[in-house]
Model the fold of this input.
Amino acid sequence: MDTLQHLTTGLAAAMSLQNFSFALIGCILGTLIGVLPGLGPAAGTAILIPLTFKLDPTGALIMLTAIYYGAMYGGTITSVLINVPGEAASVVTCFDGHQMAKQGRAGTALGIAAIGSFIGGITATIALVAVAPPLARMALSFGPPEFFALMLVGLCLITGLAGRSVLAGIVMAVLGLLIAMVGIDPVRGAPRFTFGIPSLYDGVGFIPVVMGLFGVAEILLTVEAPYRQVISTKITQLLPTREEWRRSMGAIARGTGIGFFLGLIPGVGAIIPTFVAYVLEKRISKTPERFGQGAIEGVAAPESANNAYANAAMIPLLTLGIPSSPTIAVLMGAFIVNGLTPGPFLFKERPDLVWAVIASFFLGNILLLVLNLPLVGLWARLLRLPYQYVCVGTLLFCVIGAYSLQQNVFDVGVMIVCGVIGYGLRKIDLPIAPLVLGLILGPFLEKSLRTSLEMSGGDFSIFFTRPLCVTLLVIAAVVLLASALRLPPAQVREAAND
Amino acid sequence: MRRGWQVACVCLLGVFGAALVTSLGYSLSDALGPGPGFFPFWLSLIGAVLTGMILVQTGRSTLLTDGGIKILPTRQAALQAGSVLVALTAAAALFEPLGFRLTMLPFVAGLLLALGARSPLAIALCAVAGSFGVFHVFFYWLKVPLPIGALGI
Done:
């Protein structure tokens, strides 16, 4: 009953003219980011954070979350029309979506993707409403050792699943944690790694680093290999035929379930649910040979999984303060920029904000369906925009975003350096996701470790005498061990570095 | 690919080594427990050891073959990527002395030209929109502080 009351209040807040406008603008911008190849949701969300600097936190977060799932939604259009995923999670949609477009069924592919995404998103949000409050209440009983262990699990999952080498994943996470140590020590107040540079006293800004690693690096890669032109296809008949509906409904239901449950696990990343949903459909199909040749289930299942994941991935962030992927880490950064720390205390201290944001997910999914079905032709036309203009526009936003957070040119420099580093890492296939997660979780991880050790007078046994903490540490160890033994399939490991 | 990983490992070893030495200058523990140097010290040490292991593995492994993947860009691509970096660096240097609008006007126009845009009208329109237009939207509508230069523009 309490939850329903909160949800009703949240819906009222989300439906206010101001917040509705923010959700609408966020959905449009997000879809635009998803549509434009070479600009992923992490970079897109990061570069649009400056738009929200002067908004109230509720409006800002409604807009940024709308950008996030709008981008997840919009990536489908490029996958279908030019066989280039607008964002990593849409890779799987290319397999059958583009084949459908080649057969003159682009409209049906985009239509079923929009419908599947809508069903996946709405179902996951309903489940989020049911799951989040009890999980947040449970997390309130966690002490610093449990939070330390929990963050370690998240880092291990991201690290273990990212890239071709688990060692490289750990090193990148350690590098992220180390960069997070720059600035004033959060416990004692002593400066560390500041080298007398005043701009470093507040630490290395998360936003400039993310804009560099994702935004600038992405542009450097794009100018090196510009994306292809859209194929000429007329988008007609968005709604599937009766037979296509029959084939798609089960796929959408299974995709939604897979996306939701994998979204609950920190570190899984957006692409794995889509792969799992696709593989499952192919396995259970009586005609698996149709997959890769334009099977509608091959679009419906991954798209539903993608959006169910996007909404479910907000659960670990909102209830435990653990970001599941780099994009969610960027959203966590946006919470922090607005003076809010995601986690169980947010439910207690700012229920108005949390529930307005959750309620806006319902609104956003409806808005996205409206934007995606009738306006799909318009989005497709945007693909004809020459890449030079997209690159320069993105760089312009990156400069504004890096500068305006602290009005410091030093941050623009940090962004440029990180852009070069990100470009290099992408070229040699070193994972960036663990670095970003390490950077955002670093201060929290250190604080909970040191507070735990202060509680025990420096005795590390505090981590091994609390049952929940031990369980979480064992999970972290098992995840790393399994990854080191290369148990997750290669495609999953390489794809997880979204 | 293998050479790329080796170069990256050497760079990382340099970073972790420097961080390790620097962190020794902070106290590792104090009366209340771990000190400011505790976390950085252990992170640097772990990072350095693991990077060393990757370096050894990379030397022996057959997994990191080039596999036809071209790491170094073509001359044309390198020039374009270089022009992006030069433009960004110049913009960062001139941002505060010249102000947002006067910096971004040549930034947008120059970068579009460098990346291969050829329509003078489109370039001019984008440059004005990307400098004066964007400034107006962010500064006046969104209240995001952007620099105004010495000339008051």
In short: Residues 75-98 of chain B form the longest helix (24 residues).
